[in-house]
Amino acid sequence: MKKLSEDLHELSGHVANAENKAAAVEEASKEKIQASLRELSDHVAATENKVAAAAEASKEKIQASLKKSKEDAKARQASFKASLSEKPAAAGFQWEELQDNFNQKIQQIKNKRETEKEAREARRAQHRADDAVWDAVAAIDFAMLAVDEAELAILEALDAQAYADLLA
To answer: Which SS3 state, helix, strand or coil, does residue 86 take?
Structure first.
């Protein structure tokens, strides 16, 4: 995310630089070019805001999911304890011991499975994140190339205007 923010900030710098060069163009042309550059600048700023919001939304979703999982686990524990209190004392003790052994074994299996699953998901998520970062960096690099092309077009417009003024 830091690389994306840095690239977006660098792109904003390119846009500002191109806006400054556009100031030298003929008034009618200048307004059209500056409007396009302002639109690009606004788009970059909006993209920066969306990236920041997406990072926060993901964090909130994770926290909400974690909270729900904890609540579900507590509800299951309460239900189990309530069912034990309904049994006769001797049968309840044997049942409780059997249940504890069973729950320990099940928990061990779940923990192992969950650990392996989390490791797989973490690797997949990291791979997707790496791909997404590279895609974003490539898109930003493409936008910087477009800004460079706009800068060249502005300079060519200035050159053409100067030549037209010289001939007039």
So the answer is: coil
Output the CA–CA distances (angstroms, integers) from residue 97 to 85, 104, 113, in the order listed.
Answer: 13, 11, 24
Number of domains in the chain: 1
The pTM of the full predicted model, rounded to 2 decimals, is 0.41
- Please name the residue that has the structure tokens 């960096």: 137
Among 75, 54, 40, CA closest to 5: 54
Cβ atoms within 10 Å of 46's Cβ, excluding its own? 10
pLDDT 10s digits, 25-36: 556 566 766 766
Quick one: CA torsion of 46, 48, 49, 53, rounded to 10 degrees? 140
Q: Domain residues for 57?
A: 2-167
